[in-house]
Structure formats: C-alpha cells, structure tokens
Amino acid sequence: MEAVTNQKGGVYFLYGYGGTGKTFMWSTLAAALRSKRSIVLTVASSGIASLLLPGGRTAHSKFKIPIPILEKDICKIDKGSDLAELLKLTQLIIWDEAPMAHKFCFEALDTSLKDIMSIDGVPSKEIFGGKVIVFGGDFRQILPVIPRGTRSDIVHATLNASYIWDHCTVFKLTRNMRLENQQTSENSEEVKQFSDWILKVGDGKIAEPNDGIAEIPIPSELLLSDFNDPIDAIVNSTYPNLLNNFKNADYLRSRAILASTIEVVNEINDYVLNLIPGEEMEYLSSYSIDRTEANDNDIFEQLTPKFLHSLHTSGLPNHAIKLKIGTPIMLLRNLDQFEGLCNGT
C-alpha cells in the first residue's frame, strides 16, 4: 500500500499454498485502492483463477501476451491505444497463480511497460516501467508446461529463473485459514495431519534422505483399496449420492477427479454421464483444411475425416461430445470473459 501511495514502484511476490488467504488478500488490496479511485488491474495465469478475482481477467487476454510466447517477445499493445493509456494510469497490477506462466510472459510485460512509460521516446529503465506489481502463487503447484521438456527445461522457464525475480520482495503466508475455518473439534487433528503431509510432499521432505528419486507412501485412509471396478469406485467415492445432487452447483464445484491421461478422462466422463438421468444429445465437430500455406497438397490425401475424428489431444475437444441437461462442461476457449466464460472455466 505504501509503494502504491508513494508511487515508488516495486515488484512483490506473495508466496502461499492453497488456503492461506491469497485470494482474500487480492480482494482486500483491490477494494482498498479502488475505494480511493485508484486503478487496479487483477489478472491470473488461468481462467478459473481469474474468476476468483474482483474484475479478474487472464493475463494473456488483458496484456495481449503472444501465444506461443518466445524470448524477446513483447505484448501486442500499441502505444497510444486505450489499453496503453489504461496501463499508464494503473497504480497496481495483481497477477495470481504466477508460477504457472512462462518467464517470457513476465519479461514481455516488463519490456512493454518500459516502452509505454517512456519519456521523450526514451524507454523507462525501471522494472515494469515503475509500476507496482504483486505476483502470487505456490511453486509447489503446477509450473509452466514445456512440451516434451525435461525437468531442467521446466525449472528454467519459471518466474524465479528470470531476471525479474532479482527485483522481487517475497512475503509468505503460512497459516491454512481455509482448513482452520472448516475444521471442528472432532476432526482438528486429522485436518492438521493431512495439511502437514501435503506440505511435506510439496517441499520434498517425504522419504528423506534420497537422491532426488523416492517412493512416497500414501496414508491408507486416502486410498481406495477394496473395489472390483476402479472407475465405479472413484466416482462413488468422489460423488456420493450423485443422483440426488447432480443439479446442485455447489456439490459439483466442491469435488473433481484428476486423471493421468485423456483416455481415462473420457472413460470417467462417459461413465458419469450414463449415471445421470435424462436424454442424451450428441454433438459432432466440423473439420476443414486450410490449404493456403501448403507446399505439398499430397499430404491432404492422408488427412481423412476418419483420421481427424480420431484425434484426442490436450486443448482440442473430441469429435463427438455427449451432453445432458444439467451436466457441467469446461470451456477450452475464451468466449465472453465479462460473463466469466473463459478458457478452463
């Protein structure tokens, strides 16, 4: 708050695992400054995280960060545009789930803000053009996804491998406020043990000492051990009394199944959909081939509709999508961010 009030500029990182109050902090900061008619931009690295922020948008959408992002890239913000003028007047930028984004995203914003805040055509030499920026997140969680990348590639793509990290002042949140508010006298010890175990997994303190490779023993109470059909077992464990709650939005929002492959995702989704009563509708995709930049038209002979329909890959919906009224779906594209219809929501 002092840095914003005194217009000192600065880069800060709020480090805290899930439940420690980062979202509450963002809401409080934004409300306090906006009540003084200050401009605060709230962004996140993912669509779902952006919905939790007051006036939140994805960072790529707000700052027009190129996709894919490469070294030395800059944001697609024209000087003199409405967005450039907005950034000039902005007192604080909050960027949640920052560890998920590639370091080139932050460096592109840094270069762009230095250019936008230039004086007499000379770019600003201050980090982020002298703006106050607060990043937040947890490096124990998902890091930038590098296709076919090694562990070293992933580590070198993170924010703390960028020159920007040298300018960051780090603050830490350590109390799990979410669990403390939910626990009762009966389950307080159980909640504490689970929280401590999760933190040890994230910090790499399970099965110490080790040479970087270790087997992590999972507590028996967290495992499903007695079942004939694993899909049926995990669905019934995660979604008890599904038939009585499949129209309850809070019930669906509070639980999810994380699968290791797209094939398992499809198998679980089909199984759950068959459990839900109602008429099933099937929607098919439509494919067309852009030949404008093709040098060899012979390759198109191999791209038959049957082949295209068989593709199952991340970020691309299946050829056939089956739906029933009331079933939740996830968007893979930004349709209307003002209505919360973002990628990942």
Annotation keywords:
345 residues, alpha/beta, Rossmann fold, 3 domains, 6-stranded parallel sheet, two-stranded antiparallel ribbon, 14 helices, globular
Mean pLDDT: 84
Strand order of the largest sheet: 3-2-4-5-1-6
Quick one: CATH class of the largest domain?
A: Alpha Beta
Number of helices: 14
Number of strands: 8
Biggest β-sheet description: 6 strands, parallel
Radius of gyration: 23 Å
Helix content: 25-40%
From the 3D coordinates, which CATH architecture of the largest domain would you assign? 3-Layer(aba) Sandwich
Instruction: Sum up the overall morphology in one term.
Output: globular
What string, H for helix and E for strand, traces the elements in order? HEHEHEHHEHEHEHHHHHHEHE
What CATH calls the topology of the largest domain is: Rossmann fold
Number of domains: 3
Q: Which secondary-structure class do the elements indicate?
A: alpha/beta
Q: N- to C-terminal separation?
A: 31 Å
Low-confidence parts = none
The CATH superfamily of the largest domain turns out to be: P-loop containing nucleotide triphosphate hydrolases
Q: What fraction strand?
A: 5-15%
